[in-house]
UniProtKB/TrEMBL annotation:
Domain of life, source organism: Bacteria
Organism this protein belongs to: Ancylobacter novellus (Thiobacillus novellus)
Name of the featured protein: GNAT family N-acetyltransferase
Entry-linked Pfam families: FemAB_like
MF annotations from Gene Ontology: transferase activity
Residue runs in coiled coils: none
Presence of the UniProt keyword Transferase in the record: yes
Keywords from the named record: Transferase
Amino acid sequence: MKLHCCGILPKLAYGPRERRLPLRDCFGPCGRRRHRTKARRRDKVPRSGPFAAPARRRLRGALRLNLRRRATSEPSAERAFRARTIERVADADPALWNAAALAGGPYNPFVDHRFLDALERSGSVGPGTGWSSTHIVLEDADGGPAGFAPCYWKSHSQGEYVFDHGFADAYERAGGRYYPKLQVAAPFTPATGPRLLVPPGVDRPSAQTALAAAMRGLMRQGGASSVHVTFATEEERALLVGEGFLPREDQQFHWRNEAYGSYDDFLGDLASRKRKQLKRERRDALADGVSVRHVTGSDLREAHWDAFFAFYMDTGARKWGRPYLNRRFFSLIGEAMPETILLVLAERAGRPIAGALNFIGGDALYGRYWGAIEERPFLHFEVCYHQAIDAAIERGLARVEAGAQGEHKLARGYRPVVTRSAHLFADPALSRAVADYLRRERSYVSVVQDALDDASPFRRGDQPV
């Protein structure tokens, strides 16, 4: 899609340090040839970012974009969209947001309006966190809802799980300013899901293309260095690449349910030595009076969250230095969406000693957080991985997604899968450098993927495809 240089891109004046760009053909509504673009400041990154008061005033209100799209049934028809931003997801209609999220595939709890609202209401996202909400709302020519995108201004690169610290360091050493940047994601959540949300009845490719253009415009208007759409679906990533975003790939480990009736059926697909190893591992984890129970739905109580938060804080302090979520967040999700939560608790003599928080999606169980106040051999593997497999089989879910990283998951029957993201940079020089790096990184990911497949615990010839 070609952007109209004088209608689609935001019109900002950055003061005396500006220049007129070269003449070029205009592909916008005016249709004129050799159209001169608007004046733009020489600096790649404006001095006032979205956290400064003047920029905040600019970003409030509507970011208007007029996009020429051709309807599939009427090749000559035009379709116009208008995009605006909201500073709280609560300002979007929950039913419309969730309908758009569901239209992209099976239910994903991390783009559920309730989940994103709990992050904001609890203060886990917002002032002082480095995550500032600026969600895009797309409307059609009649003012009807046409799309949403969960977006955040970021002043750091924490809590994203697609690492760009190296890009930031290199750019700032070269004299640029990497932050703020625009993150399109479910905060603190390395789980693939829809990012360009389009409700039923709306031309999906057209609306998603309009959302991509809105991200580009918002990046420029806000003085951001880049846009990062992380853990996007394959369909979305392909569309974004077509709009000039750079593709990036990484790996996670997911367990796949091959119509197993029980955990023993799953073990039957493993090599004999691996079967014995996992049986011994589960037996040792639950020795000395340790038991495990699952808590979900209306059975969740504040006492459960108190216990789990102690586990979460212990892991967070050791792993990240500062946990991302606060205690109120867990109460809010327990109240708002209890049917999507599966809390696995390990107990000794009735006292919780470890736990794992899972979210139940339309076709997957998502393992998110784990912690323990008592160290035991293999307890982590039992509570996080084996119990998740038990739960997925019981519920008929297609897979378990156990979060980011972790080659140790391979031995527990979790197989490597590719995750996808898309990135756009305002500075062409930075974009070229990152594109070169990402080409080499994708080759490396592919080689590692093949090597990990060869190390699978499944019997040769019986591996799930």
